[in-house]
Amino acid sequence: MRIEIWADVVCPWCGIMNERLNRALARFGHDDEVEVVHHAFRLSPELPEDHGFAVTERMTANGRMSEADAVAASTRIEDIAHEDGIERYHVADGSTGNTMRMLEVLAFAASRGIDRAAWDAAFHAHFGTRRDIWNPEALADFADSIGVNGDEALFALHTRRFAEQIEADQARAVALGAQGVPFVVVDGRYGISGVQSVDTLVDVFERALAAEDDIEAVSA
Length: 220
Description:
alpha+beta; globular
């Protein structure tokens, strides 16, 4: 079974969905039959890549929302994360922006065989410890921390080795009907948009596995 998830590192709902996905997979089992693949989807590609912006600043830009409403909405997301057992989850006082460079580092990590653990670490770095994800040297340190060579990751950033892959990831999600993230596709047949419960995810996984079994039975 192939489970694909599109996300952005600065998307707070993506971090929560990532946690629920991990819990759903643990409950579902079948570890030897499941492949999880993460894909990039930038929420703010129009912004510069070299620094982050305060979350509340972006939410209130162009009068879209008052500062009080922005803080309240962000705090509500934090509360949901805490209810899910995520101990630290900074949204209201966090940063957001164009995550192209971080996503390229994650693509580099995936090319070295570290995908799921790298995304887990990225969400924790951004929402849990508010680690710098904007500076290339800081991203090289992050790469080192997850077990891939930071100097090689930095070289990949300088050469933009994975830039086309990031763009292709996003284009494919849009072609599949995604209007935002998180977005999950199971076995290329079951699409899941937005944040869903662990129970819902497990149910989809079980239906997908049953469908695979049916196909195998017919083929036999």
